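Student:
Attend to each token:
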Amino acid sequence: MVAPPPALPAQTERLDLTRPDGSILRGVRIAGRDPSRPTLLGFPGNAWNAEAMALFLHQIAPRHTVVVYHYRGYSPSTGTPSAAALMSDGLAIRDSLQGPVIAVGFSIGSGVAAHVAGARPLEHVILATPFDSLRHVAASTLPYVPVRWLFAHEIDAKAALQNSAAPLTLIIANNDEVIPNARSGALAASQSDADVIRLEAGHNDIYNTPGFVPAMRSALR
């Protein structure tokens, strides 16, 4: 389902990160115009090409350096994806970066970014179409299935963020057809100091809605 990669700027650097199980994570680094600014570390949504997210963030904030990796199992990265593996990989990617970092997570990537925020120092955390818990999302979507017994890939963003001291911005789609409003709302309610921005958009079209880029730039300021 992942789209082909876009054409990237000339200053793009290819990155490889080998994990203990032998899996190789492949990513890109797009240098920004101001090296003193924090690096934007992106965690894409399920069907996003990591390079497309990197270009999108670079276009929004060209002064910041941007780093985004393909999830394991998402070509050209190798390995088999799982929630635990993605969260562990997220920490390893953060540890590979020098200097201050802002984590940006879209959709399922918001859970990975939240996990990193709970375990590593960050300058800021920006989560778009976020959720409190993947298990709760699944239970809301499949109310007649015993999710608590069957669900194997939990990402608990709400619990992770309890351990984060970084400023938090949540960008929520009011008409989200994938993440129920109850789940994004529960996350927002648990974060009393968060800056919560609500946009009249759906889960997939929020990135094209007129308010999204201004919301991102406001958070970065």
Observations:
- The beta strands are 12-18, 24-30, 39-43, 66-69, 101-106, 124-128, 168-173, 195-199.
- Helices lie at 50-60, 83-95, 108-119, 134-141, 147-150, 157-161, 181-190, 212-220.
- The chain is about 35% helix and 20% strand.
